[in-house]
Amino acid sequence: MAYSKSKWSEKTDTQLKSELTEILRNSKSTDGPTMKYILNPTVLTEGDLIRRERIGQKNEDKPRKIILMVGETGTGKSTLINAMVNYIMGVRWEHKMWLEVTEIPEDQTESQTKAVTVYEVNAPSSPFVLTVIDTPGFGDTEVFDEDKRVSEALQQLFKSEDGIHEIHAVCIVLKGSDVRLHARQCYILDEILSLFGKDIEKHILLLFTHQEKQILPKRIMNFIKESFNKYVKNDEYVSFSFDNCQSDYIDQEDRESYKTSWNNGVENFRKFFNYVNEINPKSLHMTEGVLRARKQLDASVGNLRDRIRWAELKKQELEQTKTALDKFENYKEEQNNFQCVVDEPYKEAVPINASWMEWSKKATRCKVCEENCHYPGCWWVRDLSWCSVMDEGKCTVCTGRCHYTKHVKDSKIYVPKTRKVTKTNDNLKEQYEEKVGEKKSLMAKIEKDIQQMEAEKIRLVEECYQCFDKLMETALKSTSISSFIHLDFMIEKVKETGNQARVQKLEELKRRATEEHGGKVERLHAYTRQMKI
C-alpha cells in the first residue's frame, strides 16, 4: 500500500484529533497558532542502555517496518524523527498542530540521551507499524567510551529473544549544508559502518536534513560521490532530503511562509515511506556476529596480553633456574645444597581502578583458570550465560573454555605479579616428579618447558590474529578506530612469530587508519593506556 499525496490533508483538525485521541491523551500541550503536543508514550522497558516506548495501541495485524537512525550530534536527527511521527500520524500543515515524541533541547549540539531508544509507532491510518531505533548522537565528546555504549546497546537489542532481529533500512543522517566530511564525521561514519555486517550495505539510506529542495543539489551528489564512496563501495546510494523547520511554526504571521516548505517535506516523506514500504527486511544475524566478534576481539586481546605476560614470567622463572644450575659444576654431589632465588609468578585479584566510566568497573573472571575473560565486561548482563564471550554455555576466551557457572562478574581483575622465592633441590624434585640427580636431564627438562612456553605464546598470537582476521572479513568497515586500538599490539606480537605477510597486512591497516583518523589516534593511545588494553 502506497501513501497517496492527499490521503490525510482531507481530514479536518477535529477528525484528526478524534483519530489520535488515545495518542494525545496525557500529552503536554502548548497553545498557539501551531498547537504543540509533547506525547507521553507507553514505556515498555527502560535501562541504562536501551529504552523501548510504544506510541498508540499495539497492532499485531499490520506488517512492521524497522529503521535504524544514526548520525552525528547536531544533524537534526531528533527533529527528523519527530517529523516522521507527524507524517505517519497524518499531521499536515492545515491541521495547525505538531507532535513531539522526544523534546528538542535548546542546545542541539549535545545528545539528549545516552540510551538507544526504540519507538514503536502505531498510527491508525498507516499501512504498517513503524519501529524507529534512535541511537545517541555519535561524537558528543572526545570520550571514546560513550560511542562504545552504542555497540553495547545494539548487540543487546539484536541478541535478546524479544529484541530486533531484522531491519529494513539503516538511515545515516547528514547535514545537507555540509559539502565535505570533516574529521569528526569521518570518525563517526567509520564507527557507524563498523557496527554492521557487509550484507547490510544495500540497506543503507542517506537522509539529508536542513535541505528545502526535493531534488538533491549537485553539491550533495558530489558529496556522496567524493566523500561517502570511500567508506562503502556501492553502485548507487538511495538518498532523501528533508527540511527541519516544521517545529518552528509558532507565529501566525510566519505560518503562511512555511507552507511550501512543509508541503515539500510531506512529499519527501511520502517518497521515503513508499520506498521503505517496498524494502524486504534483512536479517541482522551477520551484524550481530560482527558486534559479537568485536567484543570477543577486545576480550581475546585483553586475555591474550595477560596470558602472554604470564608465559613470559614463567619463562623468566625457568631461565633463572637454568642459569643457577649452570653455576653448579658438580651438581650430582652438591644437589642437596642447591638453592637459588627466582621471581615466581602468581595471580592476584585486585579492585578495578577505573573512574572514567561506570560500566568499565565490571569484569567477567574465570575462577578456575584465574583469567580475565571479559574486561570491560557486559555490565548489563545478570545471567553470565548471556555474556558476549560465552557460546553455548562455555567461555570462548579462558584457557579451559570453562562453563559460565565457573565464572564471576565483579569489580576485580586478575593481575600477574611476581614474588621472590628460594628454590631448592626438593622444589625441583617436586616440580618434575622425578629424581634430579643428573644435571643434564634436569636442564633438558627445563629447556623443554621454556620451549613450551614460547610455543604457547605463538599459539595465543595465532588465535587472536584469526579473531581479528575474521572481523576484517565480515565487518562492513574494516578500519574503524575501535579496531585500531589493537593494531600496535598485534603487529608487535605477529612480528615475533616471523610471519612477514601478516605483519605487512596489519601495518597497511594501521597506515589507512592513521590517514583517515589523524589526531583521533593519539587520543586512542591515551585511552588504551588508561584501560591498560
From TrEMBL:
It comes from the Eukaryota. Residues 425-463 form a coiled coil. Gene3D superfamilies: P-loop containing nucleotide triphosphate hydrolases. Keywords: Coiled coil, Nucleotide-binding. Residues 63-236 form the AAA+ ATPase domain. SMART domains: AAA. The keyword Coiled coil applies. GO terms for molecular function: GTP binding. Pfam families: AIG1 (PF04548). Signal peptide: none annotated. Belongs to the TRAFAC class TrmE-Era-EngA-EngB-Septin-like GTPase superfamily. AIG1/Toc34/Toc159-like paraseptin GTPase family. IAN subfamily. PANTHER family: G DOMAIN-CONTAINING PROTEIN, IMMUNE-ASSOCIATED NUCLEOTIDE-BINDING PROTEIN 10-LIKE. This is AAA+ ATPase domain-containing protein. It comes from Culter alburnus (Topmouth culter).
